[in-house]
Amino acid sequence: GDVYKRQGINAEYMGLLFILMTYIILFLFTFLHIIYANDCRGKSNIQDPLPAEPYLVRRVAHGALYNLKDGDDVIDILALKGNAYEMGKAYGELVSQKLNFSVSILLPSYQKRIFNALKIVLPLGLVKFLVNSLVPLINFGLDLTWLFTKDYTPQRYFDEIKGIADGSKLPYMKLLTLSLFPELIKASCSLVGVWGNASIDHNIHFLRGFDWDVDAPMTKFPTIVVYHSTEPGSIPFANFGYGGMIGAITALNARGLAIAMKHWPSTIPDDARSDLVGKPWTYTLRDVAQFEHNLAGAIKNLNDTKRTCTIHVGVASAEDNSYRGMRYSASRLSVYDDKHYPQTDEKHPLVDGCNYVDRWHQPTRDDCFGSLLKENHGKIDSKFLYQELGPKDQTGDCQLFIFDLKKEVFYFSLFTFSPETPGYEKQMFMMTHDQIFNKLTVQSNHFSCLLYTS
After folding, report:
1. Whole-angstrom Cα distance, residue 206 to residue 406?
2. Is the dihedral of CA 117, 122, 125, 131 positive or negative?
3. Distance between CA atoms of 180 and 142, rounded to whole angstroms?
């Protein structure tokens, strides 16, 4: 409060304005859901996957940058090894130009997009007032988030951000608050786990569709970061996200555990609640990827965490050859398998060996997933997920990932800008676990080393 008083800003007023803007945005998302949810609207994508062939761009101490050409776009793949600060500094040095640009356009871009959205439903004078208040409002929200979460954030995150700041020459606090941006804005995503009798090979297959604002500044800088931390107990893991956001929205580790999330609006009548005080959910998901190798460990980690936001979480495990969906909130962690889920009507039937949530607000009004999973029960594999389920539901506009954990391979496609194409319409890339965890090497102390052997 003292910081804002010195700047002539009333913290109480900012808090009320922040709450008002939050509810306006939630209303718009709910309105669009009601208008556009209408079952399977897409078509099959029969393109066969393309083996990914990332090429080395350059190395620094504790890190290497690889690029993967995606049409005219480029996906950055960073391989890092060391302690948190060392890996962070390598991160900052390798992609400093992109980080600087991304930070500079983040808030102005959201001002423009929110102005265009609000002017449809609100008087222009009110829209201008709200949009002009947006930058201090977002900064206020991010400052609050940092204050309320810092005591629950492991030191490794502060060390990594300090390293990124030193490597990129960006302000430490700017990067710190940028990494917390997902606490304020969640995405409408899909999570599908298929295992046992539902799959053709009786193995676990996991679909993760990330549906977000494709015009958001961060989507222009897709980044895969492969961490080989020297912290005791760490498992090498890949974080699939965007430059500067070090928390996880989608992650895979070298023991065959994959984790992802979906927004769960707390406005739905439920005894779940959010809390500003606790550990940021992106850090919680990332810690599961870094330290856990099975469902029991992942569930315990999530359950023991001082949680904040309300989100859906999906965890798939090669060790268990299974999957669990979860409703994660400050007040509780509810775990669901194929036999138990809160919605069991014709729009979301229980399907043996399947657990799923589609991209719409829950309970869903769309029966695309349920009908396709029932119709193809016993014949589902990763190919079905990336050629049929994802494209027909049109989920994964920003990211579409399919994890075939027992075969140690994954498939992915991302939104591209040249030309503009959602992930679910594109040809998928294919990478093996050996390729991402072993073949992308880091030069440390002038030696190129093989990083991980399972």
Report:
1. 11
2. negative
3. 7
Asked if residue 233 lies in contact with residue 427, where contact means CB atoms within 8 angstroms, the answer is: no
Q: What is the pTM of this model?
A: 0.87
C-alpha to C-alpha distance for 88 and 77, rounded to whole angstroms: 14
Write the CA distances from 43 to 73, 192, 204, integer angstroms: 25, 18, 24
CA–CA separation, 96 and 90 (whole Å) = 10
For residues 78 and 63, what is the distance between their CA atoms, to the nearest angstrom? 7
Strand partners, 91: none
Q: How sure is the predictor about 341, in pLDDT bands with cuts at 50, 70 and 90?
A: very high
Residue whose token pair is 């707390």: 266
Which one-letter DSSP state was computed for residue 81? E
182-197 burial code (b ≥16 CB/10 A, e <16): bbbebbbbbbbbbbbe
Q: What is the pLDDT of residue 450?
A: 44
Confidence of residue 451 (pLDDT cuts 50, 70, 90): very low
Give the range among 197-201, 262-266, 399-403 with minimum mean pLDDT. 262-266
Say which residues have a Cβ less than 8 Å from residue 277's Cβ, sequence separation at least 6: 148, 149, 152, 306, 308
What is the chain's Cα-based Rg?
Answer: 21
Residue (of 359, 334, 337) closest to 265 by Cα position: 359
Render pLDDT for 239-298 as a digit per residue (tens, 0 to 9).
999 998 899 999 999 999 999 999 887 655 566 888 889 999 999 999 999 999 999 999
Q: Is residue 177 helix, strand or coil?
A: helix
Residues 6 or more apart whose CB falls under 8 angstroms from that of 430 comprise 49, 50, 51, 52, 409, 410, 411
The secondary structure of 380-415 as a DSSP string is: B-HHHIIIIIHHHHT--SSEEEEEETTTTEEEEEE-
Tokens of residue 287, six digits = 């810690």
